[in-house]
Amino acid sequence: MEGGSAAAPAPAPAPAEEGDGCAGLWELPVECCERRPECGRCSRPQKVCLCPFLPIHPLKVSTCLYIIQHPAEESRVLRTVPLLAACLPPDKYKILVGRRFTEDRYPELATVCRNPNTLILYPGAEASNLEEVAGMSSSPSVMIIIDGTWSQAKDIFYKNSLFRLPKQVQLKPNISSQYVIRTQPTNTCLSTLECAAVALSIMEKNKSIQETILRPLQALCSFQLQHGAQIHHSKEHLLKNGLYDKPMPKNKRKLRRMELLVNNVKI
Is the pTM of this model over 0.85? Predict the structure, then answer.
């Protein structure tokens, strides 16, 4: 060879570092995820606003509702409390979010719980039927309703001593839920909006209140069913008809609860 020397071999390519195969992906533009604009009144996306089904003017009621909302309910897409609030005057409802409510942190709530005209809607052996209690009182009342799943509501009720100060009331178990796009434990378990609608109609002695408050819920369920949602039967219905397709719980307490549902025992 000319010059008596051989050409130096080309250097071997450096080994690719782990993750280099995705290097180009980091340069791609990131699309911002924007929430759909919401209606300021019903809190639904504007394209599926339910305001046409709400009362034109807030309902005239003397009863004030305190909604004790479990924090998990705030993020649920199909929650019913915003629809309930949209039906009422702003001074006739208050929503408190949390799990624990002490007198030090919630002095106003403590005062409400000690008011003899305050009722708390929670079923149980010690609860009186609301219709009987409402018939004995003519003065404006305050009603506390817990918003959450049944296990969440139970936790809030029994772990907050304030909620055992008011008189405990319940609705008669002869009403079936119309909130068919969410699974309930039994056929007679109602959503928060349904509980409030029935309770207010009893307290105010005005059946039309129940019909008015239920109208947006009926519209919500109808819309969801038209766009792919399925009717959710209660766990009680599924168990009794052999349609429950989930694994049975290994926890003895949960298994016992399911046995009680099948046997029509109130839990």
Answer: no
